[in-house]
């Protein structure tokens, strides 16, 4: 990595990676180290919180769903301990509602898995005044519809009857949609 990419960000290149997928987090740590970061890994909310409290990093990549809880808890600690920390939330369960929640509590970006090290680095180093490039593979119309249904479902506290009423949809139809995997 060129030195000028970190020029505006200071000399602190510490990076906390929090993900319960051990092979993935170790692979990402090696890739980010090659790009000039100083990574430290955690595989749970508890471990991530402890590392964030002990040594708040300049950068962090936090998985949203971890075995022992929600990665947003780690993001909150990072924002408290180090307000200038640039946090990217990474998840395999992409939903608009969780992306909004992540950004509201201070994440600079939200990436869906699979995201490679270049995607992560670009998100961590992006400037606030620059728009990110358009996605290479934007969501399909079916995926956008599914995301909207998931968002309303979450806002209704996972109440199927209330969600169906708000979406003007039959409850059984909604149950079938929710039981399926997300479309590509």
Automatic annotation (TrEMBL):
Entry-linked Gene3D superfamilies: 3.40.50.2300, Homeodomain-like
Domain Response regulatory: 14-128
Keywords recorded for this protein, A-Z: DNA-binding, Phosphoprotein, Transcription, Transcription regulation, Two-component regulatory system
Residues modified to 4-aspartylphosphate: 63
One Pfam family this sequence matches: Response_reg
Family annotation (NCBIfam families): ActR_PrrA_rreg
The protein's name: ActR/PrrA/RegA family redox response regulator transcription factor
Organism whose genome encodes this protein: Albidovulum litorale
